[in-house]
Amino acid sequence: MDTVILTTNDFRAIARHVGLNPLMDECIARLRAALQQFDANDTITPVRAGFEYTHPEVGLLEWMPIMQRGEKAVVKMVGYHPANPERRQLPTILSTVSAYDTKSGHLIGLADGTFLTALRTGAASAVASEVLAVPDAGVVGIIGCGAQGVSQLHALSRVFRLKRALIYDIDPAVSESFARRTAFLNIPVYPVPLPQLLLESDILCTATSVEVGKGPVFEDRGLPAHVHINAVGSDFPGKIEVPRSVLQRSLVCPDFPAQAVMEGECQQLSPGEIGPDLVEVVKNAAQYAPCRRQSTVFDSTGWALEDLVVLELLIDYATELGLGQRLALESISRDPHDPYQFIYEAEGLPPLEFTTAAPYKIRREL
Amino acid sequence: MDTVILTTNDFRAIARHVGLNPLMDECIARLRAALQQFDANDTITPVRAGFEYTHPEVGLLEWMPIMQRGEKAVVKMVGYHPANPERRQLPTILSTVSAYDTKSGHLIGLADGTFLTALRTGAASAVASEVLAVPDAGVVGIIGCGAQGVSQLHALSRVFRLKRALIYDIDPAVSESFARRTAFLNIPVYPVPLPQLLLESDILCTATSVEVGKGPVFEDRGLPAHVHINAVGSDFPGKIEVPRSVLQRSLVCPDFPAQAVMEGECQQLSPGEIGPDLVEVVKNAAQYAPCRRQSTVFDSTGWALEDLVVLELLIDYATELGLGQRLALESISRDPHDPYQFIYEAEGLPPLEFTTAAPYKIRREL
């Protein structure tokens, strides 16, 4: 019984074959459809949990599970380590994602979750902005120009006719390289002072690694009355990006309310101040259309449904293109009641001789 | 940055090279040492959580995390599906285990957890029985003769001079095949009626898939005053194997108290009736030696520390023997701020041409 493994090579092949823009288009289309059809009775998404630590460095390792009843469960493991880029030349977010058969418990597949996280976080903002931002939004402001900032602009460019992107990062080197990293979008990118960015953005994306207690990442000054904000940096209790006063005058739409009140911008709000969730606004887009002319915030903490949808898309492409490796991972004996039979009986191997010799010497320092 | 994958082939090679008995000896020795040296400040083990379901079949898919501060985290995923042997020719427990670097979030390795679970569950009972059972225990009773029953007898045979095993299973075919499955131990195995098993066993192991609400799996009749019970079937809220009256007159030692009160035999007890945990009795074996002459119960719900210890042992052997496959799983760009660079720039590939063509047609039914 095999486990299919999709590595970075497979995802590279998919992206090169399909094209990054059509791939993002499909992510957005599938996520939109999944939200429109979402039924909470069929799908269980517990709030994610994990290990948080501040020593020796700030970090987080968490699991995001989702189960489709009677079908499969998907668990994304996400590492959030803001010192990664500078200290290790690694992305802040590293991730893998696994799918299990809920009938047998078998691990169906394992895939990279790092590329997937960038795609789905972008796609989620695109779907939310489609229903909550002004339809003619032409200027996107990006605060926090790392990896997630790139896929935010990418995804938004697929659903709006963007004239330009205004960008800001506390690290000048990161904001300087953003234009090169998004050159494939053919959208003019301008590093600007933060006040100008706030004044001119129809859609604002915050994708920062601001420390707990150090937020918000901008002041409530000069924002257009119709601004839509995608706050995607939320992933840690106490971490916030958006000023409370902005949230209070906006329609705040969390992706996953139970999680948003623990880790998202909704931490700053009382229950009555929190608006409808993403499923609700996507299912009833016409009803919420008037909100597009007012201030809105998508509180994007990251929802396992987004991971599931994009994983399924990538698996579809991999299947179509004959990608992926198959490994017999789990030790399964022919007799399910014998945990050791797989050892004695294997094709082409001689029968096992039992030994009662002294323990094999191993290196204990490992 | 590679991820090492250890499959069933690797574990077969390890077991054949080392020998099953020396391998179990090492599991027991390492677990004993880990418990003796355990410091709750260095190691965090949250209570496991997961998806439980009763439709279409009873099942459970859960995650068991453990973190060594500043070092690594290990998450075992365990599926418990009692219909597996009969309906799918698969073991009840299927499992995989992953190790993460808590500095970067990188997935260091992935391994089969099915063989590992059998080894570590056996080893845990051996370590507990060493300190809680009579030193001259010669008769082991096994109630529930599936895969875990095999490794229970195996592990106990490494720390006691066993004269015979008395066995019982509600499925006669399963109890009949037990002698064949444990032939490598050279211990006489007798299927006996349950009352005889209870009367004659110095050590009793319950390793059943009894349904919630259908336990206990034996009556409180005829047990020797000095009996030690390893109750290893506990893995589901409401599932119990041991009569409450037996627990109440015994020293009940849970592996992991916070979990045992939710899923173990300790569900049946008030806090004052629960004894010292496994760490406590192993660290203070001399102090608890008098208890060996009285009734004792090891409430083995399964603790992630056991998984960590046995995973490290198997990794040591794999390293020594040059086993395992290395895959670049996570999509990591040379520029950590660019989630897509790994797509454009890869050795031996032409530069990527961006496309704005219509979305690639994919099969949506998948």
Overall description:
With 366 residues, chain A is an alpha/beta fold. Chain A is built from 13 helices and 15 strands. In chain A, helix 2 (20-36) packs across helix 12 (304-321) and helix 4 crosses helix 12 (304-321). The longest helix of chain A is centred in the middle third of the chain and has 19 residues, at 114-132. Chain A starts with a strand and ends in a 22-residue tail after the last helix. The relative contact order of chain A is 0.15.
Helix-strand sequence of chain A: EHHEEEEHEEHEHEHEHEEHEHHHEHEH
Strand content of chain A: 15-25%
The quaternary structure here is homodimer
**Uncertain regions spanning at least 5 consecutive residues of chain A:** 355-366
Average predicted local confidence, pLDDT of chain A: 92
| End-to-end separation of chain A | 31 Å
What overall form of chain A do the CA principal axes indicate? globular
What are the SSEs and their pairings?
The structure is a homodimer of 366-residue chains.
Chain A: E1 3-6, H1 8-18, H2 20-36, E2 43-44, E3 49-53, E4 59-68, E5 72-80, H3 84-88, E6 93-101, E7 107-112, H4 114-132, E8 139-143, H5 147-157, E9 164-168, H6 172-181, E10 189-191, H7 194-200, E11 203-206, E12 228-231, H8 244-249, E13 251-254, H9 257-263, H10 278-283, H11 285-288, E14 296-299, H12 304-321, E15 325-327, H13 341-344
